[in-house]
Amino acid sequence: MFSKSCLFSTILICSLFSTGCSSNTQNNSDTAVDTMAQPILDTTDHRMDGLSADTYTGAIYSMMKKMKAVQMTGDFDIDFAKTMIEHHQGAIDLSKIELNTGKNEELRAIARKIIDVQSKEVTELKNSLQGYQASGMKHGEGELKQSMTAMEQKMKDLRTTADPDSDFAIIMTMHHHESIDMAKKELTNGMSEKLKQTAKKIVDSSSREIKEFEKFAK
To answer: Which of 65, 69, 75, 218 is the most buried (most CB within 10 A)?
Structure first.
Protein backbone atom coordinates (compact mmCIF):
# COMPACT_ATOMS: atom_id res chain seq x y z
CA MET A 1 0.00 0.00 0.00
CA PHE A 2 1.22 3.52 -0.65
CA SER A 3 1.38 6.42 1.82
CA LYS A 4 0.30 10.01 1.15
CA SER A 5 2.78 11.44 3.66
CA CYS A 6 4.75 13.65 1.29
CA LEU A 7 3.34 17.05 0.27
CA PHE A 8 5.52 17.83 -2.74
CA SER A 9 2.68 18.04 -5.26
CA THR A 10 0.65 20.26 -2.95
CA ILE A 11 3.48 22.77 -2.82
CA LEU A 12 4.12 22.61 -6.54
CA ILE A 13 0.51 22.81 -7.67
CA CYS A 14 -0.41 25.50 -5.16
CA SER A 15 2.43 27.63 -6.54
CA LEU A 16 0.82 27.55 -9.96
CA PHE A 17 -2.47 29.14 -8.95
CA SER A 18 -1.89 31.19 -5.77
CA THR A 19 -1.24 34.86 -6.41
CA GLY A 20 0.98 35.11 -3.37
CA CYS A 21 3.55 32.48 -4.26
CA SER A 22 5.95 34.57 -6.34
CA SER A 23 7.80 37.81 -5.88
CA ASN A 24 7.93 38.14 -9.66
CA THR A 25 4.16 38.57 -10.14
CA GLN A 26 3.46 41.15 -12.84
CA ASN A 27 0.43 43.29 -13.62
CA ASN A 28 -0.61 41.17 -16.56
CA SER A 29 -2.48 38.20 -15.03
CA ASP A 30 -1.50 35.72 -17.77
CA THR A 31 2.16 36.62 -17.38
CA ALA A 32 1.84 36.38 -13.61
CA VAL A 33 0.55 32.81 -13.71
CA ASP A 34 3.49 31.70 -15.84
CA THR A 35 6.09 33.57 -13.79
CA MET A 36 4.89 32.23 -10.43
CA ALA A 37 5.73 28.65 -11.23
CA GLN A 38 9.19 29.16 -12.66
CA PRO A 39 11.18 29.18 -9.39
CA ILE A 40 9.38 26.03 -8.19
CA LEU A 41 9.15 23.67 -11.16
CA ASP A 42 12.05 21.73 -12.58
CA THR A 43 12.51 23.66 -15.80
CA THR A 44 14.63 20.88 -17.27
CA ASP A 45 11.44 18.80 -17.38
CA HIS A 46 8.80 21.46 -18.00
CA ARG A 47 8.84 24.60 -20.13
CA MET A 48 6.45 27.18 -18.81
CA ASP A 49 4.92 27.86 -22.21
CA GLY A 50 2.83 24.76 -21.50
CA LEU A 51 3.97 22.97 -24.67
CA SER A 52 6.09 20.44 -22.80
CA ALA A 53 4.52 18.68 -19.82
CA ASP A 54 6.51 15.57 -18.97
CA THR A 55 6.03 15.63 -15.19
CA TYR A 56 2.74 15.13 -13.37
CA THR A 57 2.80 18.72 -12.15
CA GLY A 58 3.63 20.02 -15.60
CA ALA A 59 0.84 18.00 -17.21
CA ILE A 60 -1.70 19.28 -14.70
CA TYR A 61 -0.51 22.86 -15.18
CA SER A 62 -0.76 22.54 -18.96
CA MET A 63 -4.23 20.98 -18.77
CA MET A 64 -5.64 23.67 -16.47
CA LYS A 65 -4.11 26.46 -18.51
CA LYS A 66 -5.73 25.13 -21.70
CA MET A 67 -9.08 24.51 -20.03
CA LYS A 68 -9.17 28.05 -18.66
CA ALA A 69 -8.29 29.40 -22.11
CA VAL A 70 -11.46 27.90 -23.63
CA GLN A 71 -13.73 30.76 -24.70
CA MET A 72 -17.13 30.03 -23.20
CA THR A 73 -19.99 30.62 -25.64
CA GLY A 74 -22.95 30.06 -23.33
CA ASP A 75 -23.98 27.03 -25.38
CA PHE A 76 -23.40 24.19 -22.93
CA ASP A 77 -22.76 21.52 -25.56
CA ILE A 78 -20.03 23.53 -27.26
CA ASP A 79 -18.44 24.58 -23.98
CA PHE A 80 -18.57 21.05 -22.58
CA ALA A 81 -17.00 19.50 -25.68
CA LYS A 82 -14.16 22.02 -25.88
CA THR A 83 -13.42 21.86 -22.17
CA MET A 84 -13.59 18.07 -22.01
CA ILE A 85 -11.21 17.75 -24.97
CA GLU A 86 -8.55 19.56 -22.93
CA HIS A 87 -9.44 17.60 -19.80
CA HIS A 88 -9.09 14.30 -21.68
CA GLN A 89 -5.79 15.43 -23.17
CA GLY A 90 -4.59 15.99 -19.62
CA ALA A 91 -5.48 12.38 -18.76
CA ILE A 92 -3.64 11.15 -21.85
CA ASP A 93 -0.55 13.18 -20.93
CA LEU A 94 -0.62 11.92 -17.32
CA SER A 95 -0.96 8.34 -18.56
CA LYS A 96 2.03 8.73 -20.86
CA ILE A 97 4.07 9.91 -17.87
CA GLU A 98 3.06 6.76 -15.99
CA LEU A 99 4.23 4.65 -18.93
CA ASN A 100 7.55 6.49 -18.93
CA THR A 101 8.18 6.49 -15.17
CA GLY A 102 5.91 3.96 -13.47
CA LYS A 103 6.87 0.39 -12.58
CA ASN A 104 3.57 -1.21 -11.55
CA GLU A 105 2.28 -3.29 -14.46
CA GLU A 106 -1.38 -3.07 -13.39
CA LEU A 107 -1.21 0.72 -13.38
CA ARG A 108 0.69 0.79 -16.65
CA ALA A 109 -2.08 -1.34 -18.18
CA ILE A 110 -4.69 1.12 -16.89
CA ALA A 111 -2.63 3.97 -18.35
CA ARG A 112 -2.62 2.31 -21.77
CA LYS A 113 -6.37 1.81 -21.55
CA ILE A 114 -6.92 5.46 -20.63
CA ILE A 115 -4.86 6.61 -23.61
CA ASP A 116 -6.86 4.37 -25.94
CA VAL A 117 -10.34 5.17 -24.59
CA GLN A 118 -9.88 8.88 -24.07
CA SER A 119 -8.16 9.38 -27.43
CA LYS A 120 -11.25 7.88 -29.07
CA GLU A 121 -13.52 10.10 -26.98
CA VAL A 122 -11.51 13.18 -27.96
CA THR A 123 -12.17 12.25 -31.60
CA GLU A 124 -15.89 11.85 -30.81
CA LEU A 125 -15.98 15.24 -29.09
CA LYS A 126 -14.25 16.94 -32.01
CA ASN A 127 -16.56 15.25 -34.52
CA SER A 128 -19.58 16.39 -32.52
CA LEU A 129 -18.43 19.99 -32.86
CA GLN A 130 -18.16 19.78 -36.64
CA GLY A 131 -21.29 21.16 -38.21
CA TYR A 132 -22.91 21.61 -34.79
CA GLN A 133 -25.69 24.16 -34.84
CA ALA A 134 -25.94 26.10 -31.62
CA SER A 135 -29.41 25.93 -30.08
CA GLY A 136 -29.33 29.54 -28.95
CA MET A 137 -30.53 28.39 -25.54
CA LYS A 138 -28.37 28.82 -22.46
CA HIS A 139 -28.49 26.05 -19.89
CA GLY A 140 -26.19 25.68 -16.90
CA GLU A 141 -24.29 28.85 -17.71
CA GLY A 142 -21.22 29.20 -15.50
CA GLU A 143 -21.33 25.61 -14.21
CA LEU A 144 -18.24 24.47 -16.12
CA LYS A 145 -16.23 27.38 -14.75
CA GLN A 146 -17.38 26.41 -11.27
CA SER A 147 -16.10 22.89 -11.97
CA MET A 148 -12.70 24.26 -12.97
CA THR A 149 -12.51 26.43 -9.85
CA ALA A 150 -13.29 23.41 -7.68
CA MET A 151 -10.72 21.38 -9.61
CA GLU A 152 -8.00 23.94 -8.88
CA GLN A 153 -8.80 23.88 -5.19
CA LYS A 154 -8.66 20.10 -5.04
CA MET A 155 -5.27 20.21 -6.74
CA LYS A 156 -4.01 22.63 -4.10
CA ASP A 157 -5.20 20.28 -1.37
CA LEU A 158 -3.82 17.17 -3.05
CA ARG A 159 -1.53 14.94 -0.98
CA THR A 160 0.76 12.67 -2.96
CA THR A 161 3.93 10.65 -2.50
CA ALA A 162 7.26 10.61 -4.29
CA ASP A 163 6.34 7.31 -5.95
CA PRO A 164 5.23 7.76 -9.60
CA ASP A 165 2.81 4.82 -9.49
CA SER A 166 1.07 5.98 -6.33
CA ASP A 167 1.00 9.57 -7.58
CA PHE A 168 -0.56 8.49 -10.87
CA ALA A 169 -3.33 6.65 -9.01
CA ILE A 170 -3.99 9.56 -6.66
CA ILE A 171 -4.00 12.23 -9.38
CA MET A 172 -6.07 10.18 -11.83
CA THR A 173 -8.66 9.36 -9.16
CA MET A 174 -9.16 13.08 -8.64
CA HIS A 175 -9.10 13.69 -12.41
CA HIS A 176 -11.74 11.04 -13.07
CA HIS A 177 -14.05 12.42 -10.38
CA GLU A 178 -13.89 15.75 -12.19
CA SER A 179 -14.62 14.04 -15.52
CA ILE A 180 -17.74 12.51 -14.00
CA ASP A 181 -18.82 15.85 -12.58
CA MET A 182 -18.47 17.60 -15.94
CA ALA A 183 -20.13 14.75 -17.85
CA LYS A 184 -23.11 14.74 -15.50
CA LYS A 185 -23.51 18.46 -16.08
CA GLU A 186 -23.69 17.74 -19.83
CA LEU A 187 -26.38 15.13 -19.21
CA THR A 188 -28.38 17.73 -17.28
CA ASN A 189 -27.78 20.81 -19.41
CA GLY A 190 -26.81 19.60 -22.88
CA MET A 191 -29.06 19.54 -25.92
CA SER A 192 -26.96 17.32 -28.21
CA GLU A 193 -27.86 13.63 -28.03
CA LYS A 194 -24.50 12.73 -29.56
CA LEU A 195 -22.62 14.56 -26.83
CA LYS A 196 -24.87 13.10 -24.16
CA GLN A 197 -23.96 9.62 -25.35
CA THR A 198 -20.28 10.51 -25.05
CA ALA A 199 -20.93 11.93 -21.58
CA LYS A 200 -22.54 8.67 -20.49
CA LYS A 201 -19.51 6.73 -21.67
CA ILE A 202 -17.24 9.10 -19.75
CA VAL A 203 -19.22 8.53 -16.54
CA ASP A 204 -19.13 4.75 -16.99
CA SER A 205 -15.44 4.41 -17.89
CA SER A 206 -14.26 6.90 -15.27
CA SER A 207 -16.31 5.21 -12.55
CA ARG A 208 -14.83 1.81 -13.41
CA GLU A 209 -11.28 3.11 -13.40
CA ILE A 210 -11.74 4.92 -10.07
CA LYS A 211 -12.51 1.52 -8.53
CA GLU A 212 -9.36 0.10 -10.14
CA PHE A 213 -7.29 2.93 -8.67
CA GLU A 214 -8.67 2.51 -5.14
CA LYS A 215 -6.16 -0.10 -4.01
CA PHE A 216 -3.24 2.02 -5.21
CA ALA A 217 -4.31 5.50 -4.06
CA LYS A 218 -4.12 4.86 -0.30
So the answer is: 75
Q: CB 138: neighbour CB atoms within 10 A?
A: 12
- Give ∠ CA 90-204-190 in degrees, rounded to 5: 80
Q: Is 151:143 a contact under the CB 8 Å cutoff?
A: no
Triad 148, 109, 205: Cα angle to 5°: 45
139-143 mean pLDDT: 71
Burial 54-92 (b: 16+ CB within 10 A, else e): bbbbbbbbbbbbbbbebeeeebbbbbbbbbbbbbbbbbb
| Cα–Cα nearest to 206, from 185, 181, 179 | 179
Which residue type sits at 76? F
Quick check: pTM over 0.85? no
Each residue of 26-42: pLDDT tens digit? Answer: 344 333 333 223 322 33
d(CA 168, CA 55): 11
Cα–Cα distance, 160 to 37 (Å, whole number): 19
Which of 97-101, 136-140, 179-183, 197-201 is least confident? 136-140
**How far from 66 is each of 117, 133, 188, CA to CA, in Å?**
21, 24, 24
